[in-house]
Amino acid sequence: MILLMERERHSPDDDEDVVVTSDRRIAAIREDLARVMTSLDRLERESAADPPDASASVFALALETLGSKVKAEAWMARPNATLDGRAPADVAQDPDGARRVRLLLERISHGVFG
Prior knowledge:
This protein is mostly helical. It is built from six helices and no strands. The two termini are 17 Å apart.
C-alpha cells in the first residue's frame, strides 16, 4: 500500500518508530473499513425492504449524499459506468437495481468512487 511506503526516518535507529507509525496507519485503515462495512450491511438490510417505488427512496439518498436537488437530479439522469453505462434513475426502477444504486451512493458518501 502506498500509505505504508511513506516513511519518515531520521536515522537507521528509527526502525521502531516506522513500525509504530505503520501500525497506527493500519489500525486507522481497519477502523475506516469497519465503518464502511457496517454502513454497507445496513444498506443491504434496508434495501431488502425497499418499497415498490424504490426509486423515490434512492432519490432521497442521492439528495442527502450529493447535497442539492439539482446535483441529485443530474446524477440520477447521467449514465454511470459503474451501472453498466445506465442512468441510476433507470436502474433504480426495480428493487435489485435500487439496491445497486443505493450501494453506489453509500460508496460515494464514504469517498470510494471506483
